[in-house]
Design a protein that fits this description.
By secondary structure, the protein is of the alpha+beta class. It has 11 helices and 19 strands. It has 3 domains: 83 residues, Beta Barrel (OB fold (Dihydrolipoamide Acetyltransferase, E2P)), CATH 2.40.50; 78 residues, no CATH class; 221 residues, Chloramphenicol acetyltransferase-like domain (Chloramphenicol Acetyltransferase, 2-Layer Sandwich), CATH 3.30.559.10.
């Protein structure tokens, strides 16, 4: 009996997606609810499970194709698991053939660049788990055999982070001079933009075209927060089961400042301004497919420990592709921490329909004047990009000053001052 595999409901207002990767191929056995394909939506990757036990039949769409909700993308032959076993045995019986080809390999002429890096278009891995193009490219660049890695992604799949971690832990060896690519030989690789990247590009350009964006800056002395974190981090982790980071302080301080300057937490809808008495803070989190921005709901009512737990959970599930669509909708204000990547200063772009975004940057010691003396202090630049149609310069500066005061004197977070 043949069962159709259809694109599941993807969420409110989402009618289509891109087929990012087939996780199973025709003839392979599959169990009910086992993922057979990965779909890329505007925000997250969604896995399509098999509805029944059986063997994968026909695949009706190709990787990179756009599919609508409810469309048939494959078929599963129920009760065909037994038929899959002989196919596997046939593959094993044919295994010596590739070995014979390998024996003839020395006769072929190999260009230096191919000897060093291999052919990107070829399949260089012997493992039977599917690898995305970004994983294959990373493995080639770092000389890592992905078939030997234990994957941390969904279903045990190898991710780009797994490859980078393996490359970082591997002993460093000098590349033979003879294998260096010739300068005259250059390569290009074209890769289809993921649906997530297309959406990010569209929305960021939309923000530039719609909002009257302006960025204002300030700096903050991180001494007090660093001291508090150093003093209480062990007790904090022991009690709450999560590390005490800087984001908990900044989210809490931002919520206090948003209450003082409600326009920064508002938005323009048509001819109306929407003000809110709650703060849903969007936080940028790194994921294998790019940055995603899940939302901390009612952050203004959460403790620092609850905020850190939520951010930690987002980070773990972003790497494994388990974030849900609804978790990335409805934010009222965004915090993006480019400092973790070494950024000194930036002008972040608003995430529509929000009206402001706060950019955090790296902490570095700089000379400052304290009580008439030049001293070294761990300083961080803050950047607030905002929609000038709604937020005046005075309000933007007042917001940053309130945030700065709360970070430089964390006691204010306890007494709401």
């Amino acid at each position: 009996m043949t069962t159709e595999v259809k694109v599941p409901t993807l969420g409110e207002s989402i009618t289509e997606a891109t087929l990012g990767q087939w996780l199973k191929q025709p003839g392979e056995a599959v169990k009910a609810d086992e993922p057979i394909a990965s779909l890329e939506t505007d925000k997250v990757a969604v896995e399509v499970p098999s509805p029944v036990d059986g063997v994968i039949g026909a695949l009706t769409v190709k990787e990179g194709d756009t599919v609508e909700v409810g469309a048939v993308i494959a078929t599963v032959e129920e009760g065909g698991a037994a038929a899959a076993a002989p196919k596997a045995e046939e593959k094993k019986a044919e295994a010596p053939k590739p070995a014979e080809k390998k024996a003839e390999a020395p006769k072929a002429e190999v260009k230096p660049v191919e000897a060093a890096y291999g052919n990107v278009a070829a399949e260089p891995f012997a493992n039977d788990q599917p690898l995305s193009p970004s994983v294959r490219r990373a493995a080639l660049e770092h000389g890592v055999d992905a078939s030997t890695l234990t994957g941390t992604g969904p279903g045990g799949r190898v991710t780009r982070d797994d490859v980078l971690a393996a490359a970082a832990s591997a002993p460093k060896t000098a590349r033979p001079a003879a294998a260096a690519p010739a300068q005259a030989e250059r390569r290009e690789e074209r890769q289809r933009m993921s649906r997530l990247r297309q959406t990010v590009a569209k929305r960021l350009k939309e923000a530039q075209n719609t909002a009257a964006m302006l960025t204002t800056f300030n700096d903050v002395d991180m001494s007090a927060v660093i001291e508090a974190r150093s003093k209480y981090k062990e007790l904090f982790e022991k009690k709450h089961g999560v590390r005490l980071g800087f984001m908990g302080f900044f989210v809490k301080a931002a919520c206090m400042a948003l209450k003082d300057i409600p326009a920064v937490n508002g938005s323009i809808e048509g001819d109306e301004i929407v003000y809110r008495d709650y703060a849903d803070i969007s936080v940028a989190v790194s994921a294998p497919q790019g940055l995603v921005v899940p939302v901390i709901r009612n952050a203004d009512k959460l403790s620092v420990a609850e905020i850190e737990k939520t951010i930690g959970d987002f980070g773990r599930r972003a790497k494994s592709g388990e974030l849900k669509m609804e978790e990335m909708k409805g934010g009222t204000f965004t915090i993006s921490n480019g400092g973790v990547f070494g950024s000194l200063l930036s002008t972040p772009i608003i995430n529509p329909p929000q009206s402001a975004v706060l950019g955090l940057h790296r902490i570095e010691e700089r000379p400052v004047v304290k009580d008439g003396q030049i001293v070294a202090r761990p300083m961080m630049y803050l950047a607030l990009s905002y929609d000038h149609r709604l937020i005046d310069g005075r309000e933007a500066v007042t917001f940053l000053v309130a945030l700065k005061n709360a970070i430089e004197d964390p006691t204010r977070l306890l007494i709401d001052l």
